[in-house]
Amino acid sequence: MAVAYERIADELRTAIRGGRLRPGDRLPAETKLAEEFGRSVPTVREALRALRDEGLIEKQHGIGNFVRRPRALARRSNLRHQWEKDRARAPLERRAQTGATEHDTGLRVGDLVFRARYREIEATTAVAEALGVPEGTALLRRSYRTRCTVESAPFSLVTSYLVRDMIAGNPDLLDETKEPWPGGSQSQLHSVGIELDRVEERVTARPPTPEEAEELELPPGTSVLVLRKVSYDTDRRAVDVTDVILPGDRTELVFTTLLERW
Q1: Which CATH class name applies to 74-254?
Q2: Of 59, 63, 158, 246, which cross-links 144 as Cys (Cβ 3.0–4.6 Å)?
Q3: Is the pTM here over 0.90, yes or no?
Q4: 3-class state of residue 240 by DSSP
C-alpha cells in the first residue's frame, strides 16, 4: 500500500504528465499543498523531494517549486562525422551557417552560446597511449561548452587532445579566440593537410562526479554517458582524442549501420 507522500507525489505527477501543470508552472506553497491533501508539511516535502529526484520539478530557493521545463534534446548520430567531412573543404560562408551542435539539436547558430578554452599540457599515460605518442608529448587540450540561450547547462562536457607539433603549422589552431571554427575540427585539421579516414567511438555509462552533476544540472540519480572518440587520418595516425560527457536525461545516441546488398 502506498504511503501518504507517495499518494501526494502520484497526484502531482499525474497533473504534470496530463498537462494540468505545465512546464514552468509554479506549484502551490508547501503549506497550501498540506492543507489541500490533509497531510503534514513534512509529508508534502517528502512527496516534492520524490518528484525532484525524478526530474519532474525543480526548486528555486526562496521562490518555490516549479514544473521542470524539458531540456533541448541532442540526438547524436554516427553519420555526423561524414556530414562534417563533407563540409570541411566548403567555402567559409557555407561552413559558418551551421555546426555539429546545430546538426544534433535542430537549433540555429543564434540559438546557442559557445565557449572554448585552450591549454598546452604534457600527455598523460592514458592520453599518450590513445594518441600513440610518448608520455609527456606536448598536447593542446581544448575544452568546449555549448548551451541553448534559454538554458544554463551545456549539452555536454567536451575535452579534446591534439598533438601540438601536428597542428602548429597553422598558428590559428592554437588560438582559442578563433573559435567557434566554421566547419569544426575536421576543417581545422584540413587546414594543416590532415584528412580523416575513420572515427572510432566507445560509449559507457556511469554515475556523474559531483562536478559533472553540478555543471550539467542533472536531476538526482541521472547517469552520464561517457564517449571516447578517436579520429584517425589517412595515414592511420590517431590525430584527435576527444572525451565527451553526455547527460543521460537529454541525450539520444543513434547508430545507423549501412549494409551491403547481396
Answers
A1: alpha beta
A2: 158
A3: no
A4: strand
